[in-house]
Amino acid sequence: MEENQMSAGGEQPQNQSDQSSVQSPKDDNKKPFVSRKGLIIALAIVAVGLLAYYLRGVFIAATVNGSPISRLAVIRELEKSAGKSVLDDMITRKLIDEEAKKKSVVVGEDEIAVEIKSVEEEIQAQGGTLDEVLTSQNLTRDDLKRQIIVKKQLEKILGDKLQVSDEEAQKFIAENEITVPVGQEVAYNEQARAQLKQQKLNTEAMALVESLKKESKINYFVKY
């Protein structure tokens, strides 16, 4: 009876061992598995390497026979020799800038351009160029621009304290025994006024900065 039922049901199913021996067509096309994490790490390593190459000047100042000199080492040496004066200059500029903002003092681009042109013409009259002078002093045009802004800020802050009268100019010429050619009185008078104004600017600026330092809270975290 059982045999008849078996035959009526058709062929017997294959056993598990026979099924496992049959491979899927996809098995032949399997590729080595690379995890997403591993790929990210590999890309990060490449990115860091490229960044280090292109930004090597940020960390390394020079190499001597393959041995590096770091920029940090250079900065430390510079701080030893000029750290105090550079920091003092930066503090001074900040104090002047804050005072200018308090007094609503603004230095326009046109004022800066006029001053740069004046400096450039004066240098050209002496047979040089502005870029040559700046390079010799290890300065850029941006450095010159910052210096002009500070000067203009001081001139506007100090205002009337920098005024020079005709009497003061004449006295300056007489005391310095300057011979004024006939017909050049106005030009020499203007030169005298300009020199006196610069002297007053230097004196009054020093007094202003000292006053601002006393009124301000300055904390030093590095001692030079």
Helix-strand blueprint:
Blueprint: H1 2-8, H2 16-20, H3 36-54, H4 56-59, E1 60-64, E2 67-70, H5 71-102, H6 109-125, H7 130-136, H8 141-158, H9 166-175, H10 185-215
Helix pairs in contact: 5-8, 6-8, 9-10
How would you describe the overall organization of this protein?
It is built from ten helices and two strands. It has 224 residues and is mainly α. It has a domain at 163-224. A two-stranded antiparallel ribbon has the order 1-2. A hairpin with a 2-residue loop joins strand 1 (60-64) and strand 2 (67-70). Helix 6 (109-125) packs across helix 8 (141-158). The relative contact order is 0.07.
Brief synopsis:
The protein is 67% helix and 4% strand. It has helices spanning 2-8, 16-20, 36-54, 56-59, 71-102, 109-125, 130-136, 141-158, 166-175, 185-215; strands spanning 60-64, 67-70. It has a two-stranded antiparallel sheet with strand order 1-2.
